[in-house]
C-alpha cells in the first residue's frame, strides 16, 4: 500500500490537520525532531558568540513602510490585524512575515561606536505568510564593521545549515547564490542551500511505502524494543530481559522505548513502528533468551542480525564515566563530529568534569568495518 507524504506525516503522528485551511498541528514526534535540530544549532551559535533574543510578533504599518523595497516582495502574503474584540483598530497591525523591519531599527539604537560591533543576534520564532500560513523557523541577524566580515559570516552560517541538513537529516543539498529575480526582497544578494528548505524534505527523501524513515540523529525514538512471547514462554524472564536492554541503551545516551502493549501481535507492532520511522528494532523472544542474545532489525534496509546481549552496548556510558573519574586516558571509536564531542562534554560536566578529546592517535588499532561510534549511531573513523 502506498502512503502519500501527508499520509505518512499523519500516520507517523508528526502532524494533524487544523480547522483553518493551511494550518497544521505539529505533534510531539515532529517537535522532538525540531528540538533536536535546535539543540545542535544552539550549540553552534553559542560557539560563534551569537546571543539569543526575541522580538514581538506584531509589526506596525509605519515600520513596514520604512522598508518599501523589502516589504514589496511580501505584500501579498502579509496578514493584518484590524479588530480588537468588536472595535476596529485605528491603525492595522501586521503579523510578521519576517523580522528585518522589526529588528534593524533597534540595531541603529544599540550600535553607537566601533566597539559595539559585531552585533550578532538569533531568534527562534514563528512567522506568518498567507500563502503558507504559520510556520516555525530560526533567523539570525548580524551587523559587522566591514563588508568582508559580513560576507564571511554568511558563508560560515550557510555551511552550518548544510551540515545540519546533510549530517542530521541526511538530505543532500547544494549551496549557492540566488539570481536577482529570486533573491530575498530588499537584499543585496541571497545565498541558499537548495532541496532542503522545509522539514518535509527529510520525509520525502527517506520515506517509503511503509511510512517514515527517520535518520538516527534526529529520530525521536532511535530504538524500539519489542518482546516476542510464544505460547508457554517465560514472559516474566522476557520482560526482565527487554527492560534491561532498554535501560542499557538509555544509559548509553540512545533514545530507546519499549512496546509493552499486549493487545497487538508482534507483527502489528513491527509495522506500527516501521511506519513511525524508528531506525532500529530489537526483538527478544524465548529463543533469544535461551541464547542470551537479541535480534536487531534495521528500518532502512530490513537487515536482521543476532547480537549477544552483553555486546549490544559494548562500551557502556557508566564504564566511560568511571574511567574518566579515575583520570584514565580512554581510547574509543567515535565519528569525529564536533557536535558529538560537545555533547560528551555537556553530559560529563556534572559527573566528573567536562571530558575533552585529546587527539586521534597516528598509531591505533584498526577499526572494524561498520564499527559505530560509542557516542552515537554514526560510523567510527
UniProtKB/TrEMBL annotation:
Catalytic activity: tRNA(Pro) + L-proline + ATP = L-prolyl-tRNA(Pro) + AMP + diphosphate
EC assignment: 6.1.1.15
Keyword Protease: no
UniProt key word Nucleotide-binding: yes
InterPro entries: aa-tRNA-synt_IIb (IPR002314), aa-tRNA-synth_II (IPR006195), aa-tRNA-synth_II/BPL/LPL (IPR045864), Anticodon-bd (IPR004154), Anticodon-bd_dom_sf (IPR036621), Pro-tRNA-ligase_IIa (IPR002316), Pro-tRNA-ligase_IIa_arc-type (IPR004499), Pro-tRNA_ligase_II_C (IPR016061)
Domain Aminoacyl-transfer RNA synthetases class-II family profile as annotated: residue spans: 22-284
SUPFAM superfamilies xref list: C-terminal domain of ProRS, Class II aaRS ABD-related, Class II aaRS and biotin synthetases
Keywords: Aminoacyl-tRNA synthetase, ATP-binding, Ligase, Nucleotide-binding
UniProt-listed SMART domains: ProRS-C_1
Entry protein name: proline--tRNA ligase
Record lineage: Eukaryota, Viridiplantae, Streptophyta, Embryophyta, Tracheophyta
